[in-house]
Write a structure and sequence with these properties.
2 domains; alpha/beta; 12 strands; binds NADP nicotinamide-adenine-dinucleotide phosphate; single chain; globular
């Protein structure tokens, strides 16, 4: 880490537990690359303590913070202002402290779409099928709809998908047990569930009848290559892992706090991936 001056700008990630977070490594890489007088640190904040902690960080002169589990909903409530990305996602993952006020946004949807584009996949080239209806599905669905895509959602608990469709007009819902057949009508399928993540069951998705042009995206990034991505590769389909989304979602926050728009490139990807493989 570089030596800080009294002018250093400081941000961090609020979570509990926060020890697993790769964000300090990711932002630390960019700080070093750009020679910025600043720091990005883990902020272990217990459930329920975010309101008092965030006001404390604001009073202590922090530039802002990322917010992760379990604080993303609480973060929404403590903001003085929230933008459309946060409102549509129903949660906040990025706080910017300015002029004594807390502004909240949600960059997960931006990160997802930017990662598709980095892989030369046009998010509106054809209909997208999202599997899952949790927090990340909401952010991804909102970003795809805002980009002009046709979006379908399939979730184990149908009522939850319908709630999402009520909040995000235009979203279509199909039954969880018809997801294999639904692949035929879609250009992109996205796993937004934790299925396939270390410690979870694999996602059951039969790609055998999928169109050869289907793009398969998995938001899970531990492991880097999930069984879904391996199945897509084996079937000759294009596959996109979740690490790129994680890297891209960090760009707007870094730019707000440290004044430089950082680039997601192969060197960064390898640096963060090395920690996931360790
Ligand atoms: N790459 C990135 O930058 C990024 C960003 C955010 C999240 N993620 C990853 O995305 C995943 C989901 O995160 P989240 O915050 O959206 O989670 P969440 O809010 O807890 O939502 C989980 C969703 O998965 C479904 N689900 C869980 N277990 C299931 C099972 N056994 N069978 C079928 N469906 C199941 C749930 O369905 P029910 O409604 O039926 O319970 C729900 O729709 C995590 O692995 C997270 O690490 C990655």
């Amino acid at each position: 880490m570089s030596i800080l001056s009294g002018h250093a700008r400081v941000a961090g990630i609020a979570g509990w537990p926060v020890t697993y977070s790769r964000s300090p490594r990711l932002h630390g890489f960019w700080l070093q690359r750009h020679g910025i007088d600043g720091a990005y640190i883990p902020l272990p904040i217990r459930p329920g303590d975010l309101p008092i902690a965030a006001r404390g960080l604001l009073a202590a002169g922090f530039a802002g913070a990322n917010v992760t589990i379990p604080h993303k909903l609480a973060a929404f409530e403590i903001c003085d202002t929230v933008d459309d990305t946060a409102r549509r996602a129903g949660a906040v993952n990025t706080l910017v402290f300015r002029d004594g006020k807390i502004a909240g946004s949600n960059t997960d949807g931006y990160g997802f779409v930017a990662n598709l584009q980095a892989h030369d996949v046009d998010p509106v080239a054809g209909p997208a099928l999202l599997l899952g209806a949790g927090g990340s599905a909401r952010a991804v669905a909102a970003a795809l709809l805002d980009a002009g895509a046709v979006v379908t959602i399939s979730n184990r608990t149908r009522a939850r998908a319908e709630n999402l469709a009520r909040d995000l007009p235009g979203l279509r819902v199909v039954e969880w047990n018809t997801r294999n057949a639904a692949l035929r009508d879609h250009a992109l399928v996205v796993n937004t569930t934790p299925l396939g993540m270390v410690g979870h069951e694999p996602l059951e998705l039969d790609l055998s009848a999928a169109p050869a042009s289907l793009v398969v995206a998995d938001n899970v990034y531990v492991p880097l290559e999930t069984s879904l991505l391996a199945a897509a590769d084996a079937r000759g389909l294009r596959s996109i892992g979740g690490l790129g989304m994680l890297l891209h979602q960090a760009v707007p926050g870094f730019q707000s706090w440290f004044g430089v728009k950082p680039v997601v490139d192969e060197e960064l990807r390898r640096f963060v991936a090395a920690d996931l493989l360790a």
